[in-house]
Amino acid sequence: MKATIIGLGLIGGSLALDLKKRGFASRITGVEINRENGETALRRELVDELVSPEEGVKKGDLIIVAVPADAAINLLPAILSDSEGKTVVDMCSVKERIAIRLKDHINRREYVASHPMAGTEFSGPEAAFSGLFDGKTTIICDKNLSGKESLDVVKRMYSVLKMKIIYMDSSDHDIHAAFVSHISHISSFVLALTVLEKEKDEKRIFEMASGGFESTVRLAKSSAEMWVPVFDQNRENIRVVLRTYINKLNEFERLITEGQSDGLLSAIREANKIREILKDKLNITRL
User: Cα-flanking dihedrals φ and ψ of residue 185, to 5°?
Assistant: First the structure.
């Protein structure tokens, strides 16, 4: 298997490390428009060579598209047009608009829509590491639209990466992603902006920051270039989630303002139920 990875950031770089290390791919060809990122990927030996997108598609049996959503939606039609007999898979965290764009493409069955639910707040090839995907969940969307051979290649790839695969359609994926992933990043960005606005003395912020604050605001360090396209492509679902979130914030504000201790107690205990849900998920993942 010869793999071409387009986009050598955290996701693409970590894929390159483990697909080569674990024997899935004999050769990794890289495509990276950012010169500094490309040089870092070569220095770290994430890839065997760097080439143009056109040459990368020609050289790979498997073409992995690991670029931000706005770039992916524009790149994928052309990549598919030049990839007859190959398998193309993307890593984007928003799927429906890409699905619509590729629905009638002549080579649609050679494309697999996927979203590995893995990552950190860091970006770029310097942040890539082996084991990023181990034990995590990946989502394959619209599997009935992918050919069996391409689907089998991608399933083998995720097996090598030690990921659990679940299936759903693109529309459902974007709704669920808005609730469990996209809103988390927005909350973190807003919290960081709130604190920075009110606390002009940065030294005080860091002196008072505890583990709780650090874990809550961790995602605020995530790449703007990656997340703005996600929010744009999934704006309708995110709008619905934000409205629910804002309503809950308003309810907390009311309870606190009115001194409704019993109401706060009840709301927090209701929120505590998430602990058991996440515990059950962790146990299932370990099976």
Answer: -70, -40
